[in-house]
Amino acid sequence: MLRYLPFLLIIALTIYTFIDCLNTPEEEVKHLPKVVWVLIILLFSIVGPVVWLFAGKKRVPGGAGRPRQGRRQWVAPDDNPEFLKSLREERDQKERDEKEKD
To answer: For 29-63, how does the pLDDT look when each residue is reduced to its tens digit (9 = 90+)?
Structure first.
């Protein structure tokens, strides 16, 4: 089993970097088009994934805990002011419609 470990690690690294490349927005990919990066990752089993990790995409200053610029972080509906405002407007519209019927 131990002799298969390096092969499994290479496969896991390739799968991780392949998925990471596919999920990375086009504007965050550096140096080459995204399609070329995917081909490099898949064709060059060890070198491709390692090069992607170090040179393939723009890194966010401060590490992985910070959201990427240009992306909005998901907000639960009960904490989203825009959603709550739309609910209030909907409720007010229904009340106005009911008053007009009477």
So the answer is: 888 888 999 999 999 988 999 998 888 877 766 55
For residue 34, give the H/E element and its range: helix 34-43
pLDDT of residue 10: 92
15 phi and psi angles, rounded to 5 deg: -65, -45
Domain boundaries, the chain: 1-58, 74-102
Give the pLDDT score at 57: 78
C-alpha span between 16 and 2 (Å, rounded): 21
Cα 71 to Cα 25: distance, rounded to the nearest angstrom: 10
Give the residue carrying structure tokens 């709550």. 84
Number of DSSP helices (H) and strands (E) in the chain, helices first: 4, 0
